[in-house]
Specification:
6-stranded parallel beta sheet, 7-stranded parallel beta sheet, alpha/beta
Length: about 450
Amino acid sequence: MDSKQSNATKVLMLPWLAQGHMTPFLELAKKLSTKNFHIYLCSTPIILTSIQNRITETQSLSIELVPLHLRPTSPELPPHHHTTNGLPPHLLPTLMNAFDSASPDFSKLVQTLRPDLVIYDFLQPWAPTIASEYNIPAVEFVTTGAAVVSFFSFLAFKKPDVELPFPELQPLLGSFRNALPSRPVDDGGGGKQTPMLECMKKSSKMILFNTFRELEGKYLDYLPISIEKKIVPIGPLVHETDHEENKDSAIMQWLGTKDELSTVFVSFGSESFLSEEEREEIANGLDLSGVNFIWVVRFPVGERTEVEEALPVGFLERIGQRGLVVNGWAPQAQILAHSSTCGFVSHCGWNSILESLKFGVPIIAMPMKHDQPVSGKVVEDVGIGVEVKRDENRKLNRENIAQVIRKVVKDESGVQVRTKARELREIIRMKGEKAVDGVVQEFVQLCNQGKTI
């Protein structure tokens, strides 16, 4: 595993075992690889296999994929489940424990590779601990938005007389008050902290975020107060795709027949699945909106369901050529970049939000779980989208869905939302490589300090 570039700064990266985390790590690796860094990108074989075709031959000279084999902790967790993608929800704690149990193997990798720097994710405080044993600096890279970490930091360090400084997040306090990541770890002083907080505490001088100031400035300003580290936004790091790659696919050909700014893209990510009731409300909401749409419908692994059977009776016949329902996957980036696309009905996964903004597409926010409700509030507060509100029982309503879609993509009341999304697209274009350029010298300084210890 010797570096092919002996004079390059060597970086070992360890993201959490989810595609939504691997993607920004890989994009950061690609950008650093052009700036005299040699990257060792470490993950489980199942995840590394899934990204091999996203690394060009030239990039592979500076980006090496390093497998981390999880120790089997349960017969329920075979190698194809060493990822959150397709993982049955009840096995998530088992996967997290197996990942923690791989720390001795990660230590051996650090000893063998001798990187100058370790970049790690939010759930493995053992990674910076191992790096410090070899006098190697370690920096946390947070792949979610700054608002999410600000919100949970407030909950973790809350004082009785201090109000949450973000009114838009106030409605979430009740449902999230006890939702900090569990699995407390020893903080070294006899106390316990969650892995998320311990990871922030152990980061060397700074914490990286996949965001940018024009989107989350007030949250970025709040974080140094609560976690006492330098906060460095290096985003948006979004999966770069070849827009010619799928241009002849049936989906893109269908989209090409639609008028400019006439079609919404509907997708809830690879790990969020709609209930039958939610599918019915969304289907009828799309129907009532009168807007063209591409809807990606997904089902959990092992649930063999035909799309036609999962939709309301007569739905496909009613929509005719106004809508295209796709089972499983669609080229999201190419669809968002297309001139016919005018809106994105999204679960508000952070990567999806950033990708939508990259192409100036406003968001119809329909958050599902985890950090998504916080991100949905950010979308609305910044003015790049509108959230579809659920009722007191967390139920969706078809009329509300239709109303929000029309507002965001058609009505006069949504002009400001559409304008703001286009403004951020231009800001992202102007940023280019500048965000990552700014952190390169800090990395080099950190590495030089580590070598003198």
